[in-house]
User: What shape does this take?
Amino acid sequence: TISSVAGNPSDWTKDSVTLTVNASDAASGLAAEAYSFDGGSPWQTENTKTYDVNTNGIVIKAKDNAGNIATYSTIDITKIDKTAPQNAVIGNASSYVDGKWFNEDQTINASFTSTAGCSERLQYKVYTAATENTAVWKDGESVAINAEGQYVVSFRVIDYLERTSAEQTVKVNLDKTAPTDLTISLKENSFKKFLNKITFEMFSKDSVDVNITTDSNISGTNYIEYQLVDTNKGESYDAVNGKWVKYTSLSISPQFKGVIYARAMDKAGNLTAVVNSDGLTVDNVQPTSPVITAK
Assistant: This one.
């Protein structure tokens, strides 16, 4: 008789499965080749057989020396899973690279193609340079980035057996704040806001160097640009259609009367409000001597 067959797992395994037949015969004893795992053909001496893949309809028989055959209930092996999860696919991954900045909240999504076998799920972790060693994996198919900073977002697929795919990683840089402290400096004067009233109280007979600075402490400054408005030429400030020039250096030569306007953009695309100087006159023309006429 066959008392039991051991080894068929009720839970998932990544290993091969070995079935072991427990049989006995008190009368004539078991035959030399007493075991069959294939419904009676062939017979073998060993009471075990190993299966590398899931197998249905296994018919196990045992035979005694008198030729009597016992048959065990049909066995199905269904819990072998030797396939590790496939890699996750991050949506729009090519958009999230080092050096690229965003000025709006970002949601990073991932997906994967499941393999046959045990259950699988997506996990993610988010970290900065300071938290890389303490970041933990969390279950989820998407993650929202809404705080300013530089982040690494990783996804992986993990299955019931704790096998994981390779990590898939993107870099997400977020800066929602426009550059600060935009300053126009000239002739020991500094201007940090938009002046609606221009007084033309600054004078020079020599060229005047103009320094324009800003602080973009998150993503960094992309550029500063200025608009030089010379009222001697009949020019006026036009925020939309005026000529904005990328700032590297600026020196105003004589015979100028006007105002400097400036703005700055950071690497995330945040644009400052416009700042302007007070009126400046640069004039190196000597006054004409008066003519006195006697009457």
Q: What stands out?
A: The CA atoms of residues 205 and 286 lie 10 Å apart. The mean pLDDT is 96. The first strand starts at residue 2 and ends at 6. The chain is about 0% helix and 45% strand.
